[in-house]
Each structure stands twice: as structure tokens, then as C-alpha cells.
Amino acid sequence: MAEEKSLNFLEEIIEHDLNAGKHVSIVTRFPPEPNGYLHLGHAASICLNFGLSKKYGGYTNLRFDDTNPTTEETEYVENIKNDVRWLGFEWKHELYASDYFEQLYLFAIKLIREGYAYVDDNNSETIAAEKGTPTTPGTNSKYRNRSVEENLQLFEEMKAGKYKDGERVLRAKIDMAHPNMLMRDPVIYRIKHAHHHRTGDNWCIYPLYDFAHGQSDSIEHVTHSICTLEFVPHRELYDWFIEKLNIYPSRQYEFARRNISYTIMSKRKLLQLVNEKYVDGWDDPRMPTVSGLRRRGYTAASIRDFCDRAGIAKRENVTELSLLEFCVREDLNKIALRRMVVFNPIKVVLTNYNEDNEFVSVEDNPEDANGGFRDVPFSKELYIERDDFMENPPKKFFRLFPGGMVRLKGAYIIKCDEVVKDDAGNIIQLNCSYIPESKSGNDTSNIKVKGTLHWVSVAHAITAEVRLYDRLFKVEDPSGEAGDFKDYINENSLEIIPAVYAEPALKNAVQDERYQFLRKGYFALDKYSTEEKLIFNRTVTLKDTWAKEQQKNS
RNA sequence: UGCCCGAUAGUAUAAGGGUAGUACAUCAGAUUUUGGUUCUGAGUGUCUUGGUUCGAAUCCAGGUCGGGCAACCA
Questions:
Q1: For A62-100, where are the alpha helices, taking DSSP H only?
Q2: Separation of CA A74 and C1' B70 in angstroms?
Q3: Nucleotide nearest A547 (Cα, C1')
Q4: What is the pLDDT of residues A194-238, one digit of tens each?
């Protein structure tokens, strides 16, 4: 088999750098800001950064970009670390931009000394006004030409806490008429008398992103600093600081963030859903967060596979949710234990069945040649799915109907003899006969049936709550629609069925195990599940070509 | 009126001057004790106009369309 070599643009750059001898190995970093939970977009970045350093022999640092004490919290740090590990990656060094506050401060002093930075007394409104617009040049601040000595002293006083928030800032001195707005004397230090989650009250001046990220990359000798497209215009500034500071030349490369249909990938918006209680926290199973996906029953392997298949490029994209679903189904099909659960029951009475009960042996996973079997109790009174019976079936309906025959999975073939209704005409029971010689494993009946149904013995059934999830939004691109994205929330994204009937084996369900409820979908235990009250989340449905056909006909 | 990115089937990605390929999705069929899985097959694409070249998705120029840039956020 020919080895297919298909590189994404970053791999090409890296291979080029390696071949050219620019680097002997590479260093990447994953730089989350600890102000929210990780989502699928971050997962893509994680797979990219860690994947690249693994492929090309190097390592990846986990660096928290914690330069804004007012939005960042330790709680987020812990959850982010947990999510990265769960995804299956281990960082070389755990670092924080705040580790470099002293060094960053010295960098700022250096810039001032060399005439590349100045203290501005203007407030943010004035600074914004003087910045101009994309099509008109800005104007110089009246504080732009202060002496080095004065700048040094004022900056020192800023650091010492002499001024209130917003009273003064430190700005890089570049060009107020620069076509790139970011080069128009960007603010690099601001005053914030705020408690930092790591440095406490040591500082009251904090560097901005542009004066922290690139320098942190440089300090760590990150060879390839990979970020998303919105930072493209920042690259010019990134390089400017490296040049003026004369420090290790990390290079920034940008790729398009991964969007997924029927959801949103903005931390700000996700936070809104959490705060305004549209969802049950960051790890609500409908959220595109790593923790939400985990709670829903997604496997780390399936998320990695998704990132892999979706690929990486520089063009804006909205990847179809169906690819993600394909990836989980593929993984879960291999590992999930099969169990029978009836959601909406109708009672079947086997009129010719006399034994109290027996046990039939059913495989745990037909995909797994080494998989085990379990004994499932079978008896005279069973539940089957109400949808699996129709009094007047359409063509190609090969489930149960009056006079029709189906196999009960792992057990016998049965025939529907009589439909029992209540006074209102509702079907309340099906009287059936079973074919004794049709038992699974030693079927001598020679009867062929088209349908096989899941079932559960009434007397042995246990109950559980199941939670069925649908897409969180009704439109493919909620952020792209007019108006507020919340207008497009799918109000039917969660359906709770308080009590379904399950085979007894599910009594022993455990948290990390994945289950396939036969013909229903893949399920996993929710974090709130207890021994007294089992709660299962539906991770994803099974593909259902019958339902699809029904939809087409209606 | 500025600067910067980008454009290949429905979607996401390959092809780096030489037959436009893969996956998901879609459709059709086979197998199946899950209408699942598996297997087979099908259709659909290079934004546009010029140029260079024997030959262009690829190189060049103009245009069109989409996105980003005026936070003391990252």
C-alpha cells in the first residue's frame, strides 16, 4: 500500500523549517485563558498543537494566558487541565503568563529606555478617538513625546500603585498613521487594582495580550505559535516586539477556527447560556464543551478522530454536525455493551407460554468477537416498544402487526393473535403465541421473519430515567443569523423520559461504560445518576433509515 | 476611501505546472436475529475574466464574493 502523504499547511511549514535546519525539534503551546471551559474549537487546537509536537519530535506547553485578573479564576484552570488530560494529552510544562510578569515588566522598561514606549495620561475615550479609523489615520497623543526619564518615573509610579485604574497606560510608540490599526501605538500596560488568581496583590499593572503572548512564546522558545485567524493582524505587532526587544524569534501562524453547525463556539455566548440558565452549567450535555460532550457520553477518541477528519486550513468553515456524530457512532459501535430498554411500552402476553420464566443468552456486543454474553430473563409477560406494533401497517413495515410474526432478540419468534383495547379504543395489550422450536441458537422452526424486536420481561424490568438530547439550536449558524443568537435556541433540545423499562443487567451500569440500547441509540450514565435512580444520557441515536423513509413519505 | 486574510462537490479537506482525489452527507443495491454494523455502486466541484505555458485548481494581472481590523478583552 502506498503511503499517502497529505500534509496540512502547518505541517508543510514545519517540515520545511526542519529540512532547512531552522529547528531541530519543535515547541508548541496551548494557551487558554482561564475564563471559561474548553469547547470543541479548543479541542481542535489541542489536537493540533499536541499532535504536531508529537509528530515532529518536540513538546507542547500548557500556558495559561492569565493577564486579566478580573475575568480569570482558578476554577477554570483546574477544569481546563482536566479536559486536556481527558482528551489524552500531556503537556511538558505547566506555565502561566503571570509567571513572566517580572520579565515582562523589564521588557517594558527596555522599550521605554530605547524610546519605543511612553506613558499616556489620556483616558480610554480620548485614546480611542485619537486612534482614527481604518480609513483615516490617527493623531499623536500630546503625551507621546515625554522624555525617557519622565516615562520611566511615571511607569514606576504606575507600578507602585500611585494611580487609579484607567488613569494612565503604557503605550508602544510606533505609528499613529499605520494602516494596521494595531500598530497605532497600542496600549501594552494598564492599571488594574485587582486580585490575581496567582500573583495575588503583587501587581496593579498588567500587560495586555499583545505584550504578553508573543513574549511568553519567546521566553519558552516556542518555535511555532499557532493561533486562530483573528490574530493575523496581530502578527505584525508580535514581530515588532520581538525585533525591538531582540528576543528569541517565535513565529506566529494562523488557522481558521473550527465551527460546527447547529451550535456556537464562542466562550462569551456559552457563558451567557450558562448564566441565563438555558443549560445546566458548562457541562450540560447539549453544550459543545469538552466537559459537556464527556457528560453526554462522547469518548475522547471520537473527539480526536473528529478533529483529525475535519482537518485544518485557513478558510472559514462550518463543519457539519453529522461528521462528529459519525465519529462517535463509529467508536461506540466497537465498545458499547448492548442492552435492551423499552421506552414506550406495550404489553405482550404469550398465551401459550407456560414456564414461569427462563433465561436467554444474548451477546454483549456482536462487533466484538471476544465479547461476552449475559442471561436475560424471559417470561410470559413482556414489554415491547409501542412503535414496533401497528394495527394497519404500511408496506415494508416488518415489525409486529395482527397476524404477523417477528423475532424477539435472542429469544423466540412470536405471532400476534389478538389486539386488546380499552373502552376508549386504545391498544393496551397484544396476545401473542410463541414458537417453541424457534429459540435463538437452536431454531428448528424454519420460519423466516423480517423483523427483530428488543423486549424486556415485565416482572424483571428495572426502571431508569433517560434524557434525550437534540441540537441546541434550530439553525445551522446561530451566530450568523440576524438578531440575538438566543432567538434560535431549540426549545426541544432536551426530552426527559422519567421511567423506561430496562433489562436487569443495567442495574450494574457504571459511569465510564458505554451502552447501546438496542435499536435506540448510545447511552451513558449521567453524573447525577444514583443506585436508587439511574439516569442515562443519550449520546447519539443510531442511524435510522426506517425513520428517514417515514419522514420522506409524510 | 485604507490595510489584512480567504475562495476546490451539500460540508470539510487533498492535488504545489501533467487524469481533480478522500471522508462525511445524499441516493441505489447486497448482507444482517439491531431498519444498527458491514459490503458494493452512483451523482455532484476548481468564484470570474484575461495572461504566461504544449499543458493552469496550481504561476501573473484585474474583478467578484465572503471574513477580519477603530477593547485599558484574549
A1: 74-86
A2: 33
A3: B35
A4: 999 999 999 999 999 999 999 999 999 999 999 999 999 999 999
Catalytic center residues of A? 33, 257, 267
Cα A76 to Cα A68: distance, rounded to the nearest angstrom: 14
Q: Which three cell numbers stand for residue A496?
A: 426527559
Nucleotide B1, nearest residue via CA and C1': A135
Q: Is A392 annotated as a binding residue?
A: no
In tens, the pLDDT along A486-530 reads 999 999 999 999 999 999 999 999 999 999 999 999 999 999 999
Domains in chain A, ordered, with CATH?
Answer: 9-255 (3.40.50.620), 267-337+464-553 (2.40.240.10), 341-454 (2.40.240.10)
With residues binned 3-state (H G I as helix, E B as strand, rest as coil), the percentages for chain A, rounded to 5, are: 30, 25, 45
Protein-covered nucleotides on strand B (Cβ within 7 A): 1-8, 10-16, 21, 23-27, 33-38, 66-74
A405 in a known ligand binding site: no
Determine the nucleotide nearest to A442 by Cα–C1' distance.
B33
First to last CA, chain A: 47
Query: How many Å apart are CA A524 and CA A328, to the nearest integer?
Result: 13
- Establish whether A34 is an annotated binding residue: yes
Q: Compute CA distances A451 → A388, A406, A409, A436, A454, whole Å.
A: 9, 5, 9, 18, 10
